[in-house]
Amino acid sequence: MSTTDGLSEADKDRLHAEEMKLRQAERRAERATKKERGGLLMVLTGPGKGKSSSAFGMVARALGWDMRVGIVQFIKGKWQTGEKHFFRRFPDLVTFDVMGEGFTWDVQDRQRDIAAAQQAWRRSCELIVDPDYDFVLLDELNIAIRNDYVSIDEVVTFLKNRPRDKHICITGRDARPQLTEIADLVTEMTLIKHPYDAGFKPQRGVEF
Amino acid sequence: MSTTDGLSEADKDRLHAEEMKLRQAERRAERATKKERGGLLMVLTGPGKGKSSSAFGMVARALGWDMRVGIVQFIKGKWQTGEKHFFRRFPDLVTFDVMGEGFTWDVQDRQRDIAAAQQAWRRSCELIVDPDYDFVLLDELNIAIRNDYVSIDEVVTFLKNRPRDKHICITGRDARPQLTEIADLVTEMTLIKHPYDAGFKPQRGVEF
User: Fold this and answer.
1) Which end of chain B has less neighbouring CB within 10 Å, N or C?
2) Which residues of A133-142 are buried (b: 16+ CB within 10 A; e: fewer)?
3) How far does B203 lie from chain A, in Å, by closest CA?
4) Helices (H), B130-201
5) Which chain B residue's Cα is nearest to A114?
6) Which CATH number fits domain B40-198: 3.40.47.10, 3.30.450.20, 3.40.50.1370, 3.40.50.300?
7) Which chain A residues contact residue B188 at CB under 8 A?
8) CATH superfamily of A39-198
9) pLDDT tens digits along B122-144
10) Mutate which of A1, A19, A58, A94 to disrupt the B interface (most B C-beta within 10 Å)?
């Protein structure tokens, strides 16, 4: 039962107009208190689907505003992915580096994984300090940190001293608390239902 | 303390190679049981940031595979958004319809909201049954349903009988249980930290 049950349509419309007027005023007053602008540090984590895809959606938004975007993928290696195919079509606007050679269980060579992750982190630092970039995405950096391929202390120290003129987005499950603590935005993707569990293969346009 | 503490680097490397070999075998065996392919119905909901941006990231992936994409935005109205600016650059691949005239508290006219939402739903149905589209995004449909502008029963009945040759993604907080029940993928974006709460204005390339 909603509170508007039993009201005529005309009454619902009038009530709605009054409520929306109030809400508009509230939102405007609230909005007026939001004065900060500047580069955000964002962390997208959790076991649900949507971490990397959300980051790539922000990349699309940034490109819509003619920002320049730098992307480093820490894990996906030689995989053919829709995101790589697509964003590499805009080489003037997007730098898309993929480090490593695939998921770690396909490599089975820890030293090679570490070297690839370290190289990816060095590249990330270059992009972050480069004033040409407005948005830097470090895709699956959390996995490289979790596997101890990149030092969390080094990452946190670097990010604390980052230039504040660009957005930085870090994805991957198991984000370390030291990282979420210094982030401006943290979303945890909570898994409610995943097609893989229902027998679906990972599919183009959705998972890669 | 990790179980590998105290091991030499060489021992860690050897242990890692053995573990990864096992994991690779496990993953391959598991993967072999995943045989289903076909259009997924996806619902991205919850209060955290990343619902629409995740959907737009999947759009980018789909475009990377040369799929054709139809987008209907139920709420954003006349807003200038990065996603609109960007995806409208590919009119041969993306149809981008924006219905309505902004957030409901700016309109204050319930009948106009209802008419816009109904029109957006009719457009959504056209895109879903059109064999030319491989991926259809109904952005913020959950809000139109929550506001009773579009009937949940009508949506569920239509989607149950949808063609299975394309992916459909529905976003917006407060997804109805009748909808998540019939979905193949459901992620709840859990809000851990949002820059708006720390005084930041919504920013280009991130929130729109």
Assistant:
1) N
2) bbbbbbbbbb
3) 7
4) 141-146, 152-160, 177-182
5) B13
6) 3.40.50.300
7) 48, 189-190, 192
8) P-loop containing nucleotide triphosphate hydrolases (3.40.50.300)
9) 999 999 999 999 999 999 999 99
10) A58
